[in-house]
Design goal:
The chain is an alpha/beta fold. It contains 9 helices and 9 strands. A 7-stranded mixed beta sheet has the order 3-4-5-6-7-8-9, sandwiched between helices. Helix 4 runs parallel beside helix 5.
């Protein structure tokens, strides 16, 4: 009756000896739902091996993807938001800033750094969606302005990586002012004939799309990124009509003339380096 009664233990590891898999070792693709090993994901530039879906990443990962040997100098790192309106919703704005900073390790929704991309000098400002939805507040506008000043002073091309839900409501008009402020600064960059590259990633919406994200000498985007002003759900509920398939994806926006081209993240560094060399010569 050995087939009916187990005579030997099939699992010899006791509960006390079991080991949990380390956190962050595996990820799941939001698109095809397949498991992705973190080491393979990093090697593939945070793009799914199975369906080529571009996972959302932050400034740390973009700097790692773009800068040679991940070497760069971060600038204006200590700028933090004030609370000029003493804003409170479900919690005071100051408390929200403190909590988000502790959770993400970021001072605000943007980081700025200077380094080299395939030997070509580049000033990069990159937004982080993890910090209050990548919302554009006064610190975001100020860091972009200072980054442009740095590019003007050192004659270095400027790359803006946008990833945002739009203006930060907690700063109201102070947030909206950044649209005009950054656009005016970019005009100075244009007058000095210093290249400005705008990279739109998933998602780029609201006041960011309505200002600096669409003002590049070249506007490029990652595949499948959500790009628009109001979100598709809001538009659908407003006009009470079914939206076209793929509405507000980077492919849709490219087809309608708002982008120059779409670049796979795995080819981004090579494409940027080629463009920088071409502009330099």
């Amino acid at each position: 009756m050995a087939w009916f009664k187990r005579e030997k233990k099939g699992i010899s590891t006791t509960t006390e000896e079991k080991k949990e898999a380390p956190d962050g070792l595996w990820n799941k693709c939001p698109n095809c739902k397949k498991a992705l090993h973190s080491a393979d994901l990093i090697e593939n530039r945070y793009v799914c091996h199975y369906c080529d879906y571009h996972l959302r990443i932050g400034s740390k990962e973009y700097f790692q993807v773009l800068f040679d040997n991940n070497e760069f100098t971060e600038l204006f790192a200590n700028l933090t938001s004030g609370d000029p309106l003493h804003f409170t919703d479900s919690k005071p704005y100051t408390d929200r800033i403190i909590e988000t900073t502790a959770k993400t390790g970021l001072k605000d929704a943007i980081r700025a750094a200077h380094g080299k991309v395939d030997g070509q000098e580049l000033m990069v400002a990159c937004m982080d969606f993890a910090f209050i939805g990548g919302s554009m507040g006064s610190v975001v506008g100020e860091k972009i302005a200072r980054s442009i000043d740095y590019s003007l002073k050192h004659k270095v091309p400027f790359l803006m990586i946008s990833k945002s839900g739009g203006a930060r409501m907690m700063e109201a008009a102070f947030s909206l002012m950044q649209m005009a402020k950054t656009s005016a600064k970019l005009a100075l960059l244009s007058q000095a004939k210093i290249p400005y590259i705008s990279l739109l990633t998933d998602p780029t919406t609201g006041g960011v799309t309505a200002s600096y994200a669409m003002l590049g000498d070249i506007n490029i985007a990652e595949p499948g990124a959500l790009i628009g002003f109001a979100g598709p759900r809001v538009i659908k509920e407003t006009i009470k009509k079914t939206l076209p398939k793929g509405f507000q994806t980077s492919e849709f926006v490219l087809e309608h003339g708002f982008l120059d081209f779409i670049v796979d993240r795995r080819e981004m560094k090579a494409k940027l380096a080629t463009f920088l060399k071409m502009m330099k010569n």
